[in-house]
């Protein structure tokens, strides 16, 4: 099959990859649509040494499921962490932190930028008809945005600052705006600003953010200047949520954290079912973020488009090139 | 009066400082004993621009209290944050973060390394006879150590790592050991190790601390290598408490924080009354940490002793030199 391969920091389109062979309890999924995420771009930049097929945001159809044949034909999204179910984290209900996990297209497991992928059946969640394929490809990042609300008790009176309004920031803005009294966003690119303003989120200039004025800051820019702004803006006893992975280290004014007793929380993957619910009910429609759809044959071009400054969501359609094989 | 003055990073002993004039609601306190803390040493190194008399750990006697004359003669310790009582932090019960605060010997208010100091009467807490002067001078740092238990829910099953066993680390070790299943400490200096082992705390070599093996790490070394060790040792979903102020910025692997969803909490001042209680009951006896007592005339020598690598608590006895004035 065809897929987009990362090795030693170089992306390539490969035509003759072996189709995944499903193990007991797994399913083979034909990928309908997949989304390029900033983590994919960071992996290409070397944030984590990964070799294999990239991609972890997808929607597809189960085409093989030896241990549960009745699920063949289901339209599904998939939890990306493949876990052991037995370690202390799995036992404690924190299986996303399973010490033995592989992660689709990120750690030790080929990903979704290919015609087919394999995942355990327990990772795959059926989609209701109300969720279109184009919306469903956002389930994984929307769940990651919702994870902020899982980890931090956002109160109605909170003033919240979101730094960064890119692929993930757009979704964070949409899940935070309804639950706090004020959400302000710092965004650098006009297309990002327009989309957020259309959904009622207030975009402001960072220069007018008062020092120590914000209850909860979400840092989703992945830049060191974003972290500096977060630390400047957060109130004493306030919270900074770190939502972006960074290549390299960031420098941090630790005394500010100590003196103001600030809490910094790292946040990664989130719950799929509430994300599917929000999309199904139309509470959140992220499809306005799509800036391009590419067949796998144009995969490298798609990555180029996704890497442009300020770029929003670029989708890959693996099915589009099956006839070319 | 005599006092130890900091200006432009230079310490000096001054003989002719004006004795503080108490405002309404304040008391004049004759300082019996005062302790040199790492924050004092950091202030000398320029961590925060402060000009005035240093010192914030003290025990003394109220000698003037115009609005409550009955309190004259009381032996007291004092909360170091002098607050407005009206801002949003004071209203929310977070008065240690009062936006208008001055802080004894740290921010905009002359401190305790002098014969007399002034503080609001509401900051001063009477000591029970069971607490000796030498123990009482530890109330402020012991309260700061207890603040960890105010902020983080330490559970009986937790494995806790304390990095640094200096002035504050010694006290942290003593307040954490009784409440968790395992406390291990990384300490660099033999005198620090001996004292901790005497109170039953296990000191281990940092080389044998497993990666991702610790539920809660307390970073009290104030060093960038301590922060690196904390991040290496903490479990996914674990907590790092930052307890030391640093001059300058520290560099931090933010991706580790994000991927492992680690929480970093800054921690500063704590509750005085529980600290007094622990000292009064003899549950904690910190007086074995005292390595020297100096009159104010030997104040600069005292600072030198306190700055030695691995030094524990150096005390100043302002009363000792009154006759010399």
What would you note in describing this structure?
Two copies of one chain form a homodimer. Chain A is α/β, with parallel strands linked by helices and 325 residues long. Chain A has two domains: 3-130 and 282-317, Medium-chain alcohol dehydrogenases, catalytic domain (Quinone Oxidoreductase, Chain A, domain 1, Alpha-Beta Complex); 142-266, Rossmann fold (3-Layer(aba) Sandwich). Chain A contains ten helices and 19 strands. In chain A, strands 3, 5, 6, 9, 10, 18 and 19 form a seven-stranded mixed sheet that branches. In chain A, helix 4 (139-151) packs across helix 5 (167-176) and helix 4 (139-151) packs across helix 9. The longest helix of chain A has 13 residues, at 139-151. Chain A is globular. The N and C termini of chain A lie close together (7 Å). Chain A binds chain B through residues 47-48, 89, 94, 97, 99, 151, 212, 227, 236-237, 242-247, 249-268, and chain B through 47-48, 89, 94, 97, 99, 151, 212, 227, 236-237, 242-247, 249-268.
